[in-house]
Amino acid sequence: xxxxxxxxxxxxxxxxxxxxxxxxxxxxxxxxxxxxxxxxxxxxxxxxxxxxxxxxxxxxxxxxxxxxxxxxxxxxxxxxxxxxxxxxxxxxxxxxxxxxxxxxxxxxxxxxxxxxxxxxxxxxxxxxxxxxxxxxxxxxxxxxxxxxxxxxxxxxxxxxxxxxxxxxxxxxxxxxxxxxxxxxxxxxxxxxxxxxxxxxxxxxxxxxxxxxxxxxxxxxxxxxxxxxxxxxxxxxxxxxxxxxxxxxxxxxxxxxxxxxxxxxxxxxxxxxx
Amino acid sequence: xxxxxxxxxxxxxxxxxxxxxxxxxxxxxxxxxxxxxxxxxxxxxxxxxxxxxxxxxxxxxxxxxxxxxxxxxxxxxxxxxxxxxxxxxxxxxxxxxxxxxxxxxxxxxxxxxxxxxxxxxxxxxxxxxxxxxxxxxxxxxxxxxxxxxxxxxxxxxxxxxxxxxxxxxxxxxxxxxxxxxxxxxxxxxxxxxxxxxxxxxxxxxxxxxxxxxxxxxxxxxxxxxxxxxxxxxxxxxxxxxxxxxxxxxx
Lengths: 273, 250
Description:
By secondary structure, chain A is mainly α. Chain A is built from 11 helices and 2 strands; from the N terminus they run H-H-H-E-E-H-H-H-H-H-H-H-H. In chain A, a hairpin with a 2-residue loop joins strand 1 and strand 2. Chain B is an alpha/beta fold.
């Protein structure tokens, strides 16, 4: 009887141990431990938590109207900056990748110089350079300077991703396209890029996530993005921990949403092939 | 001012040289002339320059010296001439090189629409009749990965034919196929030959050469060692090198 009993008891526990619930419980335990640690730490500091004061900096209702708090307004600025920067950085990235692979010596040299310059200087210095030096000369405002800096910076890294994706396409594909009389433009547009996008998408998503995180630096040239709004609220209210936790959580939501969207897109591309 | 010269010869190759960057001489003083509707079979050991010759004919490979003229258009640095020649010269590759992200229909439609500027319906009509011709109309909506090697190569032939080329080049089109699929591809090629297509075929399929070949060129070390009718080369080769090679492959 004993072995049968043993077997049946293992049978009972088996689905519990291997169900997603056990993973969820483990995850919650780890989170609880972390929260407890932070709580104990701040208690010994004598920190006075005031989470109830945070909500009005996100959303509030006045006269039955929904009003965006400064954090949401900051988020909107961050979204605008990231949106434009994303478009331009992909543009710079693709252009640089194509130039680096072109037959033109001038094109290759320009691309090379741009890459070395951007990758070997700090982003913060580039931002200050564009805002304090280039912006007055070119007559551009701080928002444009911020977007331009981020686009140029992320574009340099995106170009390597594009290049790797394009190079990964077999030579036979180029030859088949050429033998049919397709121009270089049509070959890129219909043959090479649609196939390369599958290799490109995952690293490009990481790059986009990096862009969102790096965008916090524009607060240093007094653009009222999410980070800047957080700093202002803290200097007025001393809700240091609450606000930084909230700001970090908003960035987290933003990047997770982006990654999920990219995953869905990658899945669809896989289906389509 | 240069009108199209509609001479007997559709392809004229005059003393071309080709050296690869690593110093290997692929073509040495190679010349030949090919008539309209002629089927030329190029044979020779690997490294003889057969594929390089074929790839020079549609500008996939540059050559260092000499001239190639196709249907009166010189193949030179002029980009427009090059594009024009590529439109008129179809090529079938050893590894098919179908576009894996497109269906069979899209593979064959693509160049018709982009290069010949046909609309989707016109192109599809041509594509379906060509798929009928190569025997796989039911595969129009399949992706290349869902087809056998023989079927893929037949699609590749249909794709090249869709451009209505004046010349078709076959670069070891059956070498990558399983033995039982070679026949179906050769049958399509024979049909083309009988219909009067000008063809330059790099192959070791002696049956094909005997059946539809008008002329055989035996190449070695970038030169023509011997050329002549199929009978002459296979049954009565003059050069020692040719005899040796023929005895090895037969």
